[in-house]
Amino acid sequence: MSSDAFSSSIRPGSSSLYTRSHSIYGIEDRIVLDIGSLYIKCGFSGEPRPRHILPTWSRQRRSQASDGEAYCISSEFSELYELDMSTRSSSNYSAFEQRLARLLHDIYYRLLLADPKSSKVIILESPLLPVSIKQTIAKVLFQKLHVPSVSFTSAHLLALLTIGQTTGLVVDCGHLEMTVLPIYAARPLIPFTCSSPLAGRAMNARLRKLLVDHGRLILPSTLHRSIAPRTHIPQTLLTPDVIEDIKTRICIVSPVPVSGDSLSDPVDLWKDFSAATDLYHPIATTGEGKSWLFVPGWVRERAAEVLFENDNDDDQKSVVEAILDALCKVQPDIRKPLVSNVLLIGGTAMLPGFRTRLHQELLRVMRSPTESEKRHYSSVLRLHQYLTFADENGGDVFKSNVRAWIGGSLAGSLKTSGPEVLKERWNGTVPDWSTSVLNVGNTTADVQH
């Protein structure tokens, strides 16, 4: 299996950026790493896209095929880390450290073909990424790979740089969590951050439940799949990697909000309002022949409803609630410039129709709020006339899942980054907003240039 199957779909082509020999001459270029729970984006500063997007559950091994090396999936689909790692046993950290060390070794020596000792590293970070995870990343880079320095920089701020702005409301819809961070004059307003676990993993769980209840399995048959016998889908077939594949390939977000408040089960409404086509998704089963999963159209477009549901749960805010809560928290005089520049990043935000649906939901709450919404968001309801999504009229120049990495590449080419941790001065701690940078003896207090 070629590495292209798991890497970025964009090929280098004839760009001169890809003809430079970084491992020999590119010592001034920085390595930019976006280490997510499911994918690691890696490449060199100054380039317009990541060299590779590496699944965290993969392993590179040398192939005997004519195309050289290949990815080999060495274990089942699983996240690289959890956000509650601090509450888990030391064995979880040990496993995380070992997996990360193996992945970074593959990135440097098999993918980028670069000497880690010769290039500084920029790490993209979420504002709520646990300090313990950051410390483990630094430990692997310094002790295993011996990189000269590491800079942790806000992914939200870097993403904002790609649209030439320093003020905006950045919404990161990832796999483990959704995070809304206001940024004003290039300063992340971290105390006003809002987050929710209603993100990619929550959608995967909803999609799996809908497929178990309403999807069907079509086993190999001499009949056409449209008339072949159908059975319920065994739960054992719906593995996490199958669910992730279905989500990324065929799921969409319905542009039409459907309220199920008057019904205990909104499925009937979802079916009636559905305009999506039923699809067949191939799946491997035991025996010969090809099996198919029948995925109803309404399941394809309503699995994402979990991202917009309002359950009045402060711990599980919908993306709409998180955005409005963040606007309510900031000072009134900066709300207008923030709501005038809303930027979506993250893999979940790539779902077709996500931005359109989010825009409609925000306008509905601002223009026709319920009594409860009036009480909660009265201070921001008049902002609907200024609501604008960044680059919505300019096309998708940069995909939302790699936008933050591209911002890191831009910052690296300008020799700019966050506080820099030097290898010879590293004492096991890393700079973080929750601690005073001035108290961290191994970093500088200001942004490095």
TrEMBL record:
<dbReference type="InterPro" id="IPR004000">
    <property type="entry name" value="Actin"/>
</dbReference>
<dbReference type="Pfam" id="PF00022">
    <property type="entry name" value="Actin"/>
</dbReference>
<comment type="similarity">
    <text>Belongs to the actin family.</text>
</comment>
<dbReference type="InterPro" id="IPR043129">
    <property type="entry name" value="ATPase_NBD"/>
</dbReference>
<protein>
    <recommendedName>
        <fullName>Actin-related protein 10</fullName>
    </recommendedName>
</protein>
